[in-house]
Amino acid sequence: MKQFCGFKIGDRTRILIGVAIIGLAILFTYWPAIRGGFIWDDVDGIVRNPIITSPDGLYRLWFTSEPCDYFPLVNSLFWFEFWRWGENSLPYHVVNLLFHFLASILLWLVLSVLGVPAAWTAALIFAVHPVNVESVAWIYQQRTTLPLVLALLTIFFYFRSLDGSAPKTHWLAVTLFLLALLAKTSVVTLPVVLLLLTWWRCGRVERHHLIRILPFLLLAGIFGVVSIWFQRYSAACGEVVRSDNFFSRLAGAGWAVWFYIYKAILPINLSFVYPRWQIDAKAPISYLPLGLLIVVVGILVRHRRTPYGRNCLCGLACYLAMLFPVLGFVNIYFMKYSFVADHWQYAALPALVAMIVGGTSSLLGRSSRSRLQAGAISVVGVLLLVFLAHEQTKIYKSEETVWRDAANKNHSSYLPHYNLGVILLGQGHEVEAEKEFKEAIRRNPGHAGSHSNLGLIFHRRGEYKQAIRHYKEALRNGPCPIDVHEQLADALSSSGDLDGAVKEYLLAIGLNPRSAILHNNLATVFVKMGRLDEAIREAEIALRIQPRYANAHLNLAVALFGVGNYDEAWKHLILSRTYGLNPPEEFVAAVVQKRKNSRVR
Question: Are 542 and 554 in contact, with CB atoms under 8 Å apart?
Answer without folding.
Answer: no
